[in-house]
Amino acid sequence: MNKIPLLLLPGMMCDQRMFEPQIAALAEVADIHVGDITNANSMAEIAQQVLATVPPQFALAGLSMGGIVAMEIVRQAPDRVLKLALLDTNPWAELEEVKLGRGPQMNAVMAHNDGLTQVVSEQMIRRYFYSQKAYDQFAPVCLAMAQDLGAQVFVRQSQALRDRIDQQQTLAAFTKPCLIIMGIEDQLCPLDRHERMHELMRQSTFIGIPRAGHIPTIEQPEATNAALMQWLSQAIDTLEE
What we know:
Blueprint: E1 4-9, H1 20-26, E2 30-34, H2 43-51, E3 58-63, H3 65-76, E4 81-87, H4 96-111, H5 115-124, H6 132-149, H7 151-162, H8 168-173, E5 178-183, H9 191-200, E6 205-209, H10 216-219, H11 221-240
Parallel strand pairs: 1-2, 1-3, 3-4, 4-5, 5-6
């Protein structure tokens, strides 16, 4: 059985640590690549950079900002995407009220040495998890990822998110198999976003993961892994036919 190339795209101010349970669980069936989404300030350029580093065809899974980049990859190179998985993400352009908050966030991050830590801790990580236990366990990992990436990456990613285009037509035109995963308690990407993606892609499967917030990959890894394994197994069947 050939391994399927699998491209994982992490969320804002995150890296491969967001996907550690998936990398361990799926390595037997997938040749896993974790995309770098840190080096440009537009979704179009981020997608181009990622596409330059991966195999000609691949299964594609992105969480949060990674899902938004995944949609841009589908827009630019739909023939290269064998299957799509979108986790806790949003197909819409940035809402105006969210845009208004980006500037103050970026200014705070750049204003002093502790700015990044304060913004990420107080405005982002506190909203990631369903349970206090998960917060206590994983908040330090999330903060470490953000600190390792640094303030300049925060600014670039904020600009890319702020200026992104609506991808609903991109999803409506995508006819290959798609999996939509949502942590049911997600405060950042609510249910209506996921219902809309499922509506746009009639061929998609929607799975809500109980007792999980914005990052089910680490808060409920077993349920997330099971859904992704089933999705990947279908992709492998397609490759082997």
